[in-house]
């Protein structure tokens, strides 16, 4: 199981910027905590952060065939980027969108996430712990998809054996 964690603009400034909104946790601390939790669950995890929309789109596209799921915090691009939304839809895999602050308690322009429409689920307002919730969610989804695929394969095998009798 491999998960890509994609971080959007200004998240490299966590711990410094607007601590009254985002707290004092740094992106490095979030990634260290995620890596530890991923290892405990036998999951491989990779991290990417960019302040540039096109680089985020490129990274999402690179996930196709290389990872099983994406956790993304598009940050400000959540509210503006059709390109990121379309890239998430194109890769057709489980996607959990995470926001550190509760976007629904913020300014009106932050209360709509364009990118969430291409995400499997949205976690917002739990601070850095939201990433841990995202990891748990992705692991659960991937386990459910694996179980579903195994059940389908067993059904196909049983039908094949029945037809060969």
Please name the defining characteristics of this protein:
165 residues, Rossmann fold, 5-stranded parallel β-sheet, 5 helices, aromatic amino acid biosynthesis
Overview of the structural elements:
The chain is α/β, with parallel strands linked by helices and about 160 residues long. It has one domain: 3-Layer(aba) Sandwich (Rossmann fold), CATH 3.40.50. It is built from five helices and five strands; from the N terminus they run βααβαβαββα. A five-stranded parallel β-sheet has the order 2-1-3-4-5, with helices on both faces. β3, α4 and β4 form a beta-alpha-beta unit. This is 3-dehydroquinate dehydratase. Its EC number is 4.2.1.10. GO terms for molecular function: 3-dehydroquinate dehydratase activity.
């Amino acid at each position: 199981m491999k998960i890509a964690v994609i971080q959007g603009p200004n998240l490299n400034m966590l711990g410094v910027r607007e601590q009254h909104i985002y707290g004092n946790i740094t992106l490095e601390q979030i990634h260290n905590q995620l890596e530890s939790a991923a290892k405990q669950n036998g999951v491989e995890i990779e991290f990417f952060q960019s302040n540039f929309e096109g680089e985020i789109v490129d990274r999402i596209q690179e996930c196709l065939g290389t990872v099983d799921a994406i956790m993304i915090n598009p940050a400000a691009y959540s509210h503006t980027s059709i390109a990121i939304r379309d890239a998430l839809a194109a890769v057709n895999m489980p996607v959990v969108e995470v926001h550190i602050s509760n976007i629904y308690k913020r300014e009106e322009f932050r209360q709509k996430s364009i990118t969430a429409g291409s995400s499997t689920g949205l976690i917002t307002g739990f601070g850095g712990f939201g990433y841990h919730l995202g990891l748990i969610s992705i692991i659960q989804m991937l386990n459910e998809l694996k179980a579903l695929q195994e059940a389908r394969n067993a059904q196909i095998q049983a039908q094949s054996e029945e037809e060969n009798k």
